[in-house]
Every structure is written in structure tokens, then in C-alpha cells.
Amino acid sequence: MDIAQCLATIDLLCTRDFPAVHRRTDLGTAGPGYHIAELATSGDFHEDDGTEREETEAQYESYRDGLAERLTERWGAAQEVSLYSVFERSTQGEELVEPWASLSAHVPDVHLWKCTDTGRWIALGVSQWDTELPFQLLAVITEIDPE
Fold first, then answer.
1. Treating both helix axes as pointing N-terminal to C-terminal, what angle do 3-15 and 51-75 enclose, rounded to 10 degrees?
2. pTM, to two decimals
3. Strand pairing report for 109-114 and 121-127
4. Which phi and psi (to 5°) does residue 21 adopt?
């Protein structure tokens, strides 16, 4: 993972317009009021006995924490926000806004900042949909307050 490239991607998305509809982009996905950038993606774990998965999870959390240190220099200390309650509310049928509703299904928690220049929220999280699927380091840039 290249921290300088990740920071450049976050900077770009902090100023990029949001699309009118949900769609794939050159960096991940986006929709009304948000961008989600896939900063790094691991391999899958179909042939793994569990050890590689544990090491990769620790590595991706380390990537997130290293990048978070750089963002903390810019915007101050991050809030650490669990998305568990958002996920639970969505499974109970409550209609929640994006990007938080879908993120909560595969990102357990995020480090969160608010950029004072743009008013946008910036979140970093580690995603994994299932034990055999890859990990991803995600950056979320949104104007939608986290719930």
C-alpha cells in the first residue's frame, strides 16, 4: 500500500462532485452524497487454513491505522465509530441512508474525521464480506452525517 497515493485519492474525493445515482467509479463506488474508494484489496482465502487470513486482517488494520495517523495530523483525532448498531437497525427493516447502510454489512467500525474546509466526513475502515473473500481498505468521503 502506498500511503502517498492513498492520501492523494482521499484529497481528490474530498473535492470531486458526487454522482446523481449509485455507480461504479475508477476508484470504487459512489452515489448521491458519497464516494467509497477501494484503497487496497488482498487476495482471497479459499485455500487458507485460517493463518493467512489472520495475518492479512492484522496487516489491513495496520494499513488503516498508519493512514489514520496521517489524517489525524490534518484533521485532529479521529472518532472511532462502531457500525454495529447501524447494521442491526438495517436488519430490523429500518431504512437507512447510504453509504452507512451498506457499509455496516461488511465494515464493523470506522475511524472518522470531519474536514473543516469542505464539511465532508472522511472515514477509513477495513471491509470483509465473508471469511473466504478479500479484505479491503476503504476510504469513505461523504456529506451525509454518520448515523
1. 60
2. 0.92
3. antiparallel
4. -135, 160
Strands 136-142 and 121-127: antiparallel
Amino acid at residue number 116: T
Residue 137 in 3-state DSSP?
Answer: strand
Asked whether the beta carbons of 29 and 36 are under 8 A apart, the reply is yes
Whether 86 contacts 57, CB under 8 Å: no
Instruction: Give, in order, the Cα–Cα distances in Å from 53 to each of 59, 60, 103, 134.
Output: 10, 10, 21, 9
Q: Return the C-alpha cell found at 52.
A: 493467512
pLDDT in tens, 104-127: 889 999 999 998 888 899 999 999
Q: What are phi and psi of 141, to 5 degrees?
A: -120, 125
